[in-house]
């Protein structure tokens, strides 16, 4: 019996890129197909089993399964079969920047249709897979509202701050409605609301932008979570129970210098304005006092193992400081293309190499070895046993490791 039972069967989590947005060229992207995860689901989940990872973020492509209110969930059947075979617990991502082409996210019809879709998803997966059940209703509401509401990258192709603000509220409203109907079907279902951790600073020669940068760091970053938790706009129905678990994504480009037009500029690694990850996690935990995971994190190319080392150092410093951290998601499990250029990012546990129309999975050994080191350090399994769900993570092991290793927040990490 665990002294401090965790929420998940393993501390390390992974997942697969599953965006289904309409891109700038008005063409539908499907990253599940572009990475051939739909074709290699069994191999992909076998990899996670072998790596001792029993939890995976997995997408349901709303635009592909929703046929104007009727549903065809056959696209996720290969993933469900692979999960059953390899004993992997999914966190179902229900809207990853993509929605049916006939919907306008600013309308009440969007909320109603999303809620109906969420109900249908819950009814489908509860019939296919055993408990427990985890869902992310709408992925990265804050980032989604930027790229679709202000930058015009994806549908609905808006390009003003006012549109961004309106889109964020609309997405929060839909997410809250989705949580409520899922729990009508599965009362014990858990939710993970995921958004990026960011810090925005003014250019050194632009003191006039200090307040705008501060607002994005300390207000904008949190507004979606605030609405979902009921701190802001409580008339939309948010509450701490609906927020449930907070997933905070951490990437190097999350620390930025403010730009008045378009995306902000990522701070270079040596910039003295970078804040420790532990400090950013504190901002989230102190605000909501909810269980947390790092919802996504990864380095690039030859920096992947160093990135994981830094993230784990900061995560253990956060645990030592009292943050209720239940997992770290190494995302993605297999590589993904840059949305803009199509070039492989080399940020996965596996790289992808094209051979005769198939994307072979090529494991990044230094990254895996660093994962193995941390699994041993935290007394975690390195390969799943026959029933990985019979015991939750013993969080006391993670807490004890944090006390033993005495990691300190490091503002120079990168």
TrEMBL record:
Say if the entry is tagged with keyword Nucleotidyltransferase.
Answer: no
Task: Give the GO terms filed under biological process for this record.
Answer: carbohydrate metabolic process
Name under which the protein is recorded: Family 1 glycosylhydrolase
Which molecular function terms from Gene Ontology are attached? hydrolase activity, hydrolyzing O-glycosyl compounds
Asked if the Swiss-Prot or TrEMBL record annotates the protein with the keyword Hydrolase, the reply is: yes
Which keywords appear in this protein's UniProt record, sorted alphabetically? Hydrolase
Pfam families on file = Glyco_hydro_1
Query: What InterPro entries does the entry give?
Result: GH, Glyco_hydro_1
**To which species is this protein native?**
Rufibacter hautae
Cited SUPFAM superfamilies? (Trans)glycosidases (SSF51445)
